[in-house]
Design a protein that fits this description.
With 543 residues, the chain is an alpha/beta fold. The protein contains 19 helices and 16 strands. It has a 6-stranded parallel sheet, sandwiched between helices. A 4-stranded antiparallel sheet has the order 5-4-6-8. A hairpin with a 4-residue loop joins strand 4 and strand 5. It is elongated, with a radius of gyration of 27 Å. The site of 5'-O-[(L-methionyl)-sulphamoyl]adenosine has 20 residues, from strand 1, helix 1, helix 7 and strand 12.
Length: 543
């Protein structure tokens, strides 16, 4: 058998000082979608996510809660691990930076750069933002605020090991020029280039043990622990098997793609690329940085209490609908706005009206007119048949092109062009009228056959985005083939769903949501919490 091509996709590893929110869900859903898509394209995929457990931010949160940092990590890691199956996300690996396998790789790399002379001892004097876990030089900090997140920064001076990042400045610029796709989108790549051109400084890569206990030891100096970003970035090597499984590493690493949010692009391109260059490892093939979600137009924050909680959302809405919304609503790379109203609209129009109805109509008509059996397509084609078939072929081709660029929203538009066209085909061919006339049986069979083929194609294309929904469609269409054996384009060819296959009408894929009722429920919920608050206040004042 021909050896399959590799594809390695990662999400950032998430801090364990906080529970999962929409940002975590977004990147991980996008990565899961790409992993599923690439598998359908015949790739051997490694998809990884995990948690970032060291550093000052976690240490401080743990201290506030009066627990050990590892205890905090052990609790919060479950919130992430348990969320992924709820969102129909299936990573191949989940890495925690407190695992032995990771510590070993970090120390190995630190040693390697030290032995090469690219890490040296010096003194750090400047600012530090705990929220971003970022060092800032004096010249960039105004009014004691982090230039990135605006939160207060701390000033300190201590002995520190530095990585000679400045040495790699020209090589880094050359690399980005030679590999135009290594940073996406283009606009963010240009920002990074401009940043590098202003000049790179050497990067502090340790903290003294006296100021921070919670980190991986510098292998040859127990007075120092490794900087949390130096540690965290290496997770991508750990998962790929660096220094552990050479065969695995050589297979996956050259195809590495990191999905991240826009706020952590500099760490992932400047620090990470130069660290790898110093270690004689090729930088990842691509770093794609996506935009941020706001909530009803406002920045999400814990203090405002407007953070979208994926656990809560999936209690209210179907997980696949949430996945669909996140990838359909915005262009991957740009910022966008989340609102329940928009989500409900997408569910009602795209999922219930367009897709759900198409399935229920097709399956119901196959049952009524053809005894549940997909019929043989006899007789000559009519205009609408040819049009539908050609559109399906075009949409599959365009879908592939868009997915290869991670243009999720356009790829979904392609699928929905076919969904809507197929619904229109029903209206044009009027099978319920054909069904009344025995002499039109051949034509009716042809129409039902075409509907089934179109739905089969749609269901395979939809699978990476909405895996549970695709399975439901396959069940109703009578498709028994295992997903591991499916491929695009092979399984998106006209005629793939064979005559004689028995359909099984089932439940509505997406029941419509009455948004007025939802608004009412929301109103009632708010009223209830207000009442509770008032009651508490009353109790307090009485005491
Ligand atoms: N631990 C680091 C990553 C290390 S990777 C080697 C980290 N962790 S995080 O838990 O803060 O992850 C945040 C991720 O969520 C980032 O990719 C960030 O861009 C993303 N988002 C945080 N809020 C977001 C939105 N409101 N919308 C979309 N993504 C957002 O950073």
């Amino acid at each position: 058998m021909e050896k399959r091509k590799a594809y390695y996709i990662t999400t950032p590893i998430y801090y364990v000082n906080d529970v999962p929110h929409i940002g975590h869900a977004y990147t991980t859903i996008a990565a899961d979608t790409m992993a599923r898509y690439k598998r359908l394209r015949g790739f051997d995929v490694l998809f990884a996510t995990g948690t970032d457990e060291h550093g000052q931010k976690i240490a401080k949160s743990a201290e506030k809660m009066g627990v050990e940092p590892l205890e905090l990590a052990n609790q919060v890691v479950l919130k992430f691990k348990n969320l992924w199956p709820i969102l129909n996300i299936k990573p191949d690996d989940f890495v925690r930076t407190t695992e032995k396998r990771h510590e070993q790789v970090v120390q190995k790399l630190f040693n390697r750069l030290y032995e090469k002379g690219d890490i040296y001892k010096g003194e750090y004097e400047g600012w530090y933002c705990v929220a971003c876990e970022a060092f800032w030089p004096e010249s960039q900090v105004e009014e004691n605020k982090c230039p990135d997140c605006g939160r207060p920064v701390e000033k300190f001076k201590e002995e520190s090991y530095f990585f000679k990042m400045s040495k790699y400045q020209d090589r880094l610029l050359q690399h980005i020029k030679d590999h135009p796709d290594c940073i996406k989108p283009e606009s963010r790549k240009n920002e990074i280039i401009r940043f590098i051109e202003r000049g790179l400084r050497d990067q502090s890569v340790t903290r003294t043990r006296a100021s921070l206990e919670w980190g991986i030891d510098v292998p040859f100096d127990s007075e120092h622990v490794i900087y949390v970003w130096f540690d965290a970035l290496i997770n991508y090597l750990t998962v790929a098997g660096y220094g552990i499984d050479e065969k695995k590493f050589n297979f996956y690493w050259p195809e590495a793609v990191h999905l991240i949010g826009k706020d952590i692009l500099r760490f992932h391109t400047i620090i990470w690329f130069t660290m790898l260059m110093a270690a004689d490892i090729a930088p990842p093939k691509m770093v794609f940085s996506h935009g941020w979600w706001t909530m009803e137009g406002e920045k999400m924050s814990k203090s405002k209490g407007n953070v979208v909680d994926p656990y809560q959302i999936t209690e209210e809405f179907d997980a696949d609908a949430f996945r669909y919304f996140l990838l359909r609503e915005l262009c991957f790379g740009q910022d966008g706005n989340f609102s329940k109203k928009l989500l409900i609209q997408r569910i009602n129009y795209d999922l219930a009206n367009d897709l759900g109805n198409l399935l229920s109509r097709t399956v119901a008509m196959t049952k009524i007119f053809c005894d549940r059996k997909i019929p043989e397509p006899l007789g000559k084609d009519e205009k609408y048949d040819v049009e539908l078939r050609e559109l399906a072929k075009d949409m599959v081709e365009q879908f592939i092109q868009e997915m290869d660029q991670m243009s999720f929203n356009v790829a979904l538009e392609n699928i929905w062009t076919l969904v809507r066209r197929t619904n229109k085909y029903i209206d044009q061919t009027e099978p319920w009228i054909l069904g009344r006339d025995e002499s039109k049986k051949e034509r009716l069979n042809k129409v039902i056959f075409h509907l089934a083929q179109s739905l089969q194609i749609i269901s395979v294309l939809v699978y990476p985005f909405m895996p549970a929904t695709a399975l439901k469609i396959w069940k109703q269409l009578g498709i028994e083939e295992a997903i591991e054996n499916m491929l695009i384009p092979e399984d998106t060819k006209w005629g793939k769903l064979k005559p004689g296959t028995m359909v099984s009408p089932g439940e509505n894929l997406f029941p419509r949501i009455d948004d007025k009722k939802k608004d009412g429920q929301e109103h009632a919920r708010k009223k209830k919490t207000l009442k509770k608050k008032k009651l508490k206040l009353n109790l307090k004042s009485k005491n």
